[in-house]
Amino acid sequence: MSSLDRHPSTVADYDDARRRVRLRETRFGQRWCSWRRTKLVVLRLVGVLLVVLTVGAQYWVHDVVPERARLAHTEPELLPVHLPVDARDWDTAVVDLVGLGNITAVPTAAALPSLSRLGVVWAVRYDDAGIDTKVIAEMIVRAARYGAVRNIVLVGHSMGGVIALEVARHIHLGSDRHLVAVVLDCTPMDLDAVRPESRTRGSDLQRLMGWLPGARESRLLRMAVEIAARRERFTEHRHGLLPEIDHRALGSVISEVLRDKIFSDDAASNGLIESQFLAIVAGGSTADLRALARPHPDKQRPAIVFIRPRDAARDRVVDVAYSHRVLIEHAGGVDGTLSVVRPRRTEHANPIQRPGEYNAIIEAQVLPFVRRYQEAIREAGP
């Protein structure tokens, strides 16, 4: 006789049917006689709510609050980058403004030492809380007065050109300084000039800002949107509704976003990106161009320089051919002040990646054109 025959109760103890019955009998709320199902539903909802509140509290405390505290102490700044090559050019300041998603123009201006052949080079560091072009213009004018600078040249890269044109209008019409030129590097003259696939990030942020608490400060949201904006690099639609994901490319994108947009001190906040994107959406660049073209009793019209790739397809962010046409309409023509520079190897506003190409075209084409306006202002006197 086996041990199981001698002890039949052992088999009964491990009977699966009895185990399930016992589990039901000892389940939480089993002995509730009234409203049992309702009470269980309420308890589950309370549990889910507690989890959501806990996660939300962690999001607010560790993501939103530290970033909000940091942003509360920021304001726009004007930072020196290059001294003028020629002491005679101390009367001119070249002010660089950077594009969408960045906060300071210092690295870009540092890559363009050729600008110092026009004068002292300054870079604008935006206020992370947003953009006020009148405040930026007043900051530039105050610095110019303090340094005995009479003439201003503005340089705007990509979206920075949209800001530069609005700042130019304030300086030209509302100050005693002379605006020599505005240099636009692959600038979208309105939202139609932004290629459709490049509108995603700004549109997503603008929409999410309206309903998600802490969206202006949230680094988690910023990371999600930045990764989504680069989805064409790691997704591919082959079969079915869902795209296939290249996990190696996704890892590369995540590393890039963390390095350049989340942990970098030079990355713009969500609120600043929203302000930058809205500046493009507002589409005031053509109005600014018209304002700069109107006769002024004491000032000459400023030069407008547009830098764009010779092959428009090389710029995957902005339709530079479209912006080119808009600029010809509003600043070109027989009596216009427009010069278009078309290097062969540049892409979208990338002087840091192509410093040799940019400095060469500035030396060869931009400087001679802007110099004529600079000398005309000097000859006219105060």
Automatic annotation (TrEMBL):
Domain of life: Bacteria
SUPFAM superfamilies found in the cross-reference section: alpha/beta-Hydrolases
Swiss-Prot/TrEMBL keywords: Hydrolase, Membrane, Transmembrane, Transmembrane helix
Keyword Hydrolase included in the entry's annotation: yes
Transmembrane segments: 41-61
Molecular function, one GO term: hydrolase activity
Record protein name field: Alpha/beta hydrolase
